[in-house]
Amino acid sequence: MTDANYPPQADGRASTPLEVSTVADLCAEIEANVAEVIVGHEDVIEHVVTAMFGRGHVLLDDVPGVGKTMLARSIATSIDSTFRRVQFTPDLLPTDVTGVNVFNQKTREFEFQPGPVFGNFVLADEINRAPAKTQSALLEAMEEAQVTVDGETRDLPEPFTVVATQNAVEPNQTYDLPFAELDRFMKKLRLGYPDPEAEVELLGRTVGEHPIETLEPVTDLETVVAARETVASVRVEEPLREYATRLVGYTREHARVGVSPRGTIALLRAAQARAATDGRDYVRPDDVRTEAPVVLPHRIKTTDRDRDGATVVENALERVPVE
Questions:
Q1: What is the homologous superfamily of the domain 234-319 according to CATH?
Q2: What integer pLDDT is reported at residue 306 of this predicted model?
Q3: Which of 109, 295, 298, 318 is the most buried (most CB within 10 A)?
């Protein structure tokens, strides 16, 4: 069995971590570059960039037309990565995402035709338009950065980041995301409508040639991989690990389903990226508190209609002390 049109893999050599100050400068460069296209959402841009450096994936849940897809394209372009887009529809099959083995009549062998998941930056557009069976095609990829087809496992390129968009205004024409899949997204974010000033600026930039068409990379994949190594080495001292554990413990005590250990790991990885963005090689309580509202709520299920996951996390941040 051979592989046809298999995407080039990232260099397998170990990357030399960057200085933390270099990572902070790199994040600022990427964010400024993306802001040439995306107007008025600096906080969301920063959250997506820190998720990428924290080895996480992002779910953008909002109304159509606010720039979710363009945000993903802009970041992918900024890091000179392989960008793949999957348009999720009710008739999409799992193999349309992961790839499939096809028999080649000339060679008399099966060849693997890789799916769009084989990219550095994968956009799962309107992921909730496909049924759970198709959505689950991303589970192994998002957790283990690999895909298994017909019993054979293939590694995905490094870095690998999924940004999924979710249609939030047509509940009768969409499917709920399985909880196991929600738990694999490091962050769930909303862009919202721009304020009037930002929208006027946006119109000025896009009425003619769209700025995405002339956007240039500011870094390369090797540098991004090295930056991720640096973020992974940011210190998280035991008191911070205990604080994160108490926060998620509160959610387990005050909700039907609380935050999983995977969620605790995601919280601290996001905090590491937040610290590196600020030029620090250690995590502070404020890093954890800043990331908790976007990392934890979508992992929580409550029985009270008037109290959602965001409320539980807000209460946890108010009531759980930093010791």
A1: Magnesium chelatase subunit I, C-Terminal domain (1.10.8.80)
A2: 63
A3: 295
Q: Please say whether the beta carbons of 149 and 113 come within 8 A.
A: no
Of the candidate CATH numbers 3.20.20.70, 3.40.50.1000, 3.40.50.300, 3.30.450.40, the domain formed by 15-195+218-225 belongs to 3.40.50.300
301 DSSP β-pair partners: 257
Under the banding of pLDDT at 50, 70 and 90, the label for residue 85 is: very high
As given in the structure block, the two tokens for residue 85 are 């887009």
CB 100 within 8 A of CB 115: yes
What interhelical angle do 309-319 and 238-253 show, nearest 10?
130
Q: What share of the chain is helix, strand, coil (3-state, %, to 5)?
A: 45, 15, 40
Give the largest CA-CA distance in the chain.
68
Average pLDDT over residues 40-54: 93
